[in-house]
Structures
1.
Amino acid sequence: TRHLLGIKDLTLEDIELIMKTAQEFKDVLNRPIKKVPSLRDVTIANVFFENSTRTRLSFELAEKRLSADTINFSASGSSVKKGETLLDTVNNILAMKVDMIVMRHASPGAPHFLSKHIKANIVNAGDGTHEHPTQALLDSFSMREKLGDLAGKKIAIIGDILHSRVALSNIFALQKQGAEITLCGPTTLIPRHITELGVKVSHNVKETLKWCDVANVLRIQLERQQIKYFPSLREYSLYFGISKQMLDELDKEIVLMHPGPINRGVELTSDAADSHHSIILDQVENGVAVRMAVLYLLAAQN
Ligand code: CP
């Protein structure tokens, strides 16, 4: 495939190849000289129509470590504000002889639409509530570092599943690797038909924590909520918030993950987020190697 639009389209073999390549790049990143010449003469545009800290910086650093030339576009401050369309914006960027587009957009399917109209490689850096494939790949990579093979492992995804592209991409990635998945959250934040994907649903966070090897915790995405959902943030933290004490009291090892940004005091207390259970900053570190692998493998096909 010329693009990475979502995890749904990947095979287990694709995921294994990305994991293996990411490990090789992680080894490179641990050396004194972190830069490799793999993407010299490749030009990549990071095109962000939605806010981002981790994904945008991680892609830019991955591109620089691979020796690609990079340009960065943010919709705020651009001619999108004067009414320029998505396709015109991207075609103007491509006219400057750009080879690959990394795009984040608020509309589900925006990168799929682009893929039908442009020749450059496209990497989806998050499309609305749909998919965030590189986040799921770096999550899988980070879980595998802690647990090895994910087949049969018990993974809980806890929080606002309804608005989460991270949840959907993780479900596809983890199922392809043979993991068992439980989604946990209030009924209003879990889509009604999600069990058709073969996942379990729980509304009891303490029971879910007892069950799982990994708790991947998501934030409440207030910016995507059209109406005021039950529960309020205070109610959410009361019934679904996770504290360090809850994790310490489990009679087992548990891996705590979060894609960021964290709403401290809502889905996680600060002491949980910063505890020895947490691999949250390892996820961020691994994101660079995983994105290097994705960009390298796509460019290698050109
Ligand atoms: N995890 C993630 O996508 O973070 P950003 O929105 O900051 O990129």
Note: Residues 188 and 227 are 11 Å apart (CA to CA).
2.
Amino acid sequence: MKREFAVIGLGRFGGSICRELSEEGMDVLAIDIHEEKINEYKNIVAHAVIADTTDENTLKELGIRNFEHVIVAIGENIQASILTTLMLKELGIKKITVKAQNDYHEKVLNKIGADHVVHPERDMGRRIAHNIISTNILDHLELSDDHSIVEVKAGSRMHGKTLIELDIRAQFGCNVVAIKQANDKQINVSPMADQIIDQDDVLIVIGADKDISRFEKQLV
Ligand code: ADP
């Protein structure tokens, strides 16, 4: 069964969501106020419509209420983004994801009941900053303001030791949830205490940022 998504605003972010959802076989309604955007996407998505979504009647006429998930990707025009979100909320849309342009925008969106507020530039910036600072942190996924999941490459200090010997949970308060082995590219999603770590194995670690940072400095 196809799931229905509506994406409002076909800038870089909304456009990329449209392409990806369509490639995954989803039925997407793409909406933008500008005709050239609609022309760009009409052959990519199932339906593409020129409309100003700050107008309540327009939203109703589009049948937006029939969509289970609406993504508001209006970027620069914060007022249009807030008004659209407010109206979608009033129309009873079950799931509304909105892109925030800055922290104030995010606050307002949370206040008016957006279900999921995303902040792609800020989050990607943070992620890249973490990757730049630490050569051993291969990737970084923020879970909350102070918890993350990171991918770290095991160095010589861990080589040849078992998880129990390294005692990461007790020493640093973080958990190794999976290990990608360097030699055979296998991923072990429930590593046992006696698993031996080799240099260049990739450990997927979950924990508080301060604990992960200690772990990284002392052991990686
Ligand atoms: P990004 O940073 O993701 O590229 P932009 O702000 O450049 O985001 O793009 C947002 C898109 O939203 C633009 O294509 C713009 O035409 C569209 N848009 C702006 N206001 C409205 C509106 N009221 N109704 C529908 N689409 C809108």
Note: The pocket of adenosine-5'-diphosphate is lined by residues 8-14, 31-34, 37, 52-54, 73-77, 80 (CB under 6 Å).
